[in-house]
Design a protein that fits this description.
Length: about 180
């Protein structure tokens, strides 16, 4: 499977990044997006070069395609996405359970924008989202919620992603680390 799978485009929009405290979590959101089948990451508001550079380094080593954008207006991005025919999935503990809606979202061929927050998410996103989806009703983490949602969306097929470019590949092994240089 190519990143984006049957939907062509699956992007993750990260809201409310605070450079002084969220660098690691936001980088993990982007890495989870890439590893579990999305083909782009969008950082709302600020342009944190540390995050952008870390993700681009991973793409250069391990392959893509995977795009990274930053300094974008989240509201404008969501409106643009919907005007372009895509659908918006907002992950929040207040939404409807992932088990009930992931099959419906997966059945629609429309491109998907998955939105995750940091602290409080503005009402706008709850209202504009086609789907407000919860991964359980307990507060936890945007990283966990995103991983689980993408796994359900791609029905586990993300493990067959064929990354192009990059120069490293892990060979599965029972013990130790086997890393191969491509080509
Ligand atoms: N009260 C917030 C909320 O609306 O979910 C929790 C903030 S949490 C620190 C940051 C982000 O993690 C949220 O904006 C949401 O995207 C995600 N998140 C946390 N718990 C979740 C859950 N149970 N289901 C879905 N997403 C969740």
């Amino acid at each position: 499977m190519k990143p984006g799978g049957p939907y062509g485009d699956v992007y993750v929009l990260r809201l409310g990044h605070r450079p002084e405290r969220d660098k690691r979590v936001t980088t993990h959101v982007a890495l989870v997006a890439r590893a579990f089948g999305a083909n782009g990451f969008v950082l709302e508001g600020v342009c944190d070069e540390g995050v952008v550079e870390s993700v681009r380094r991973v793409v250069a080593r391990w392959g893509g395609p995977f795009t990274v954008e930053c300094g974008i207006s989240g509201r404008r991005y969501v409106r643009m996405w919907r005007e372009g025919g895509g659908e918006v999935v907002h992950l929040t503990m207040y939404g409807v359970n992932v088990d009930d809606v992931a099959p419906l979202i997966a059945a629609s061929p429309r491109r998907k924008l998955v939105v995750v927050g940091a602290e409080k998410v503005e009402r706008f996103y709850y209202e504009e989202a086609d789907w407000n989806v919860s991964v359980g009703t307990q507060p936890h983490s945007e990283v966990a919620a995103l991983a689980l949602f993408l796994d359900r969306l791609f029905r586990g097929e993300w493990r067959f992603i064929d990354y192009s470019g990059g120069f490293l590949r892990v060979m599965e092994s029972q013990r130790g680390k086997r890393v191969e240089r491509k080509g």
